Amino acid sequence: MRGAVLHAPGDIRVEDRDDPTIEQPTDAIIRLSASCVCGSDLWPYRGIEDVTGPTPMGHEYVGIVEEVGSAVTTIKPGQFVIGSFFASDNTCEICRAGYQSACIHREYVGAGGAQAELLRVPLADGTLVATPGPASDELVPSLLAASDVLGTGWFGAVAAEVGPGKTVAVVGDGAVGLLAVLAAKELGAERIFAMSRYESRQQLALAYGATDVIAERGADGVAMIKELTDGLGADSVIEAVGTQDSMMQAIRSTRPGGHVGYVGVAHGVTLPGEELFYSHAHLHGGPAPVRRFLPDLIKRITSGSIDPGKVFDLTLPLEDAAEGYRAMDERRAIKTLLRP
Ligand SMILES: [Zn+2]
Question: How far is ligand 1, taken at its centre, from the CA of residue 294, in Å?
């Protein structure tokens, strides 16, 4: 099969790779209908995360089940399925509490590289969710978004305790931040501040339900949120970047007693204990337990009530994955969809 491999920072190649096979009786092999490039793929691509050798890339996936292991009982060949970047048994105590991304048996699905034609998914019964019927071509981008960026933005909103009447700020205007805006709207937020300096992203944030766009960042961004909330700060703040600046901007934009949902993969973030102590902010986040939300998100997508696939503003054949990375790195694209 063909698959994208990162050889060194900036060096993505689509090459021949071995077809994945059933390794454990609980595995499934799926033929990917689409995959995509994640903002978190840009960390190693930019050399901010080490690249230790040729690495198969991609951890977002939708497709049709091709084969299942002998112990798989609910997932069947021919089903259209979606799963998250962490495989989970969905039965352990941690899974049952809704934290499937910390399952005691979790495995990183992305190790197999989802920017490819085929993918091995461990713990298929616990990990994969089948759509009610075959997925139409128009729904594929939205269902693919549910695999990570929508589920992650949704978790950010839930972790930030977004709800009816709440004032919400979203730090980060990548796909996760934009879909956190959508999640906040769906969960009933009254006012949603999207923090972005880019015109196309501001427009999508407004389409997804943002009531205000704030172009200022850092201390100026915090000051603007305070100004718009009678000096108090937002009830709920979603952090969708993962840097020291964005995390501090999120904490300082939160009112005392408010909640920060942090879903940007943290890189070099150190929190000042004393400032945190006096902030009275709740912090909750981490790798999103996307699996918890998949059944609900699939229903909202197939019924047409949400359209998260709009975050894909560039579609390329898998063979052109390198251009897909470049376009996101240079901010010419919000998110690239790859068609095998
Ligand atoms: Zn589990």
Answer: 16
